[in-house]
Design brief:
- With about 90 residues, this protein is α/β, with parallel strands linked by helices.
- The chain is about 20% helix and about 20% strand.
Length: about 90
């Protein structure tokens, strides 16, 4: 299992409640508008899939699932055609 860059013992409950339930298009819009995340074209989040970070960049055609939630206090990025398992940080 991959080690997080900055280890945390908490589950991001607030982030899960605010964004985890949203459908993918609304979640992407909320991430862009409210958190300033840079999200490419064709990105898809499944129900419950979240990414938590201060500086987040997600490339084109990336899929993030609920079992593949990513959190990091610093920054997180994924390139084009990456899948959720490449973002697994929990």
């Amino acid at each position: 299992m991959a080690e997080p860059l900055i280890p945390k013992d908490r589950i991001p409950w607030r982030h899960l409640i605010l964004f985890g339930w949203l459908p993918s298009p609304l979640k992407i819009l909320a991430y862009r508008l409210f958190l300033g995340y840079r999200i490419g074209r064709g990105v898809r989040f499944s129900f419950g899939g979240i990414v938590v970070g201060k500086s987040v960049e997600i490339g084109d055609r990336v899929e993030i699932g609920s079992s593949r939630s990513s959190r990091d206090a610093a920054s997180r990025s994924a390139g084009t055609r990456a899948s959720g398992h490449e973002l697994r940080v929990l």
